[in-house]
Amino acid sequence: MKLYVYDHCPFCVRSRMIFGLKDVACEIITLPNDDEATPTRLIGKKMLPVLVTESNKAIGESLDIVKYIDETYGSAVVTVPDNSAIEAWMEEATGLIYPLAIPRWASADFEEFRQDSARHYFVSKKEAVFGPFARLMEQTDSLVTEINAKLEVLERLISQQERDSEHFSLTDIRLFPLLRSLSIVKGIKWPAGVDEWRREMAVKSHVNLNDDIAI
What we know:
The chain is an alpha/beta fold. The protein is built from nine helices and six strands. The chain has helices at about 10-20, 35-45, 60-70, 85-105, 115-130, 135-140, 140-160, 170-180, 190-205; strands at about 1-5, 25-30, 50, 60, 80, 170.
């Protein structure tokens, strides 16, 4: 199997997680961010992740990939019900996390941005949606203050849920990529329980955090 991804992409992280959680072998291929031809050839549009299965079928939605791998290889591990409170938290937090993470992704040393053309492509596309990155960076202090307060709320929500070291929910699959996205931001105050949870998930899923390259 081959999984086409961008390293920074939280949707790609979702798909990468299931391979680590189930210890299923897969070749991870990081595409340049401006490679429109490859995903378009595989699924008809420029979007990642894309999984090419052993039967040469292309699957192009992150949670569809999670479902396919979980149902096809061994016993299912994504069996825990969603956590509605954490899902609601994510809805609110996403609007703070992306404006913090996106301009930092653009200047980080991710493989998909190794070519100048790929980095420029990303900046052009994202600035058209989120506005100039310089302006987003100017909002860092206020955004960090807001997300740090929300992380305290998440701490309480995580402490209230039952933990199962071998089974997971789609909420887990959605939450970890968001927290990984936030890990590229300096000044984040990780509450102890949230920090423990994200580090455990990084180990179990074999997907690294970005604390060491935080900006």
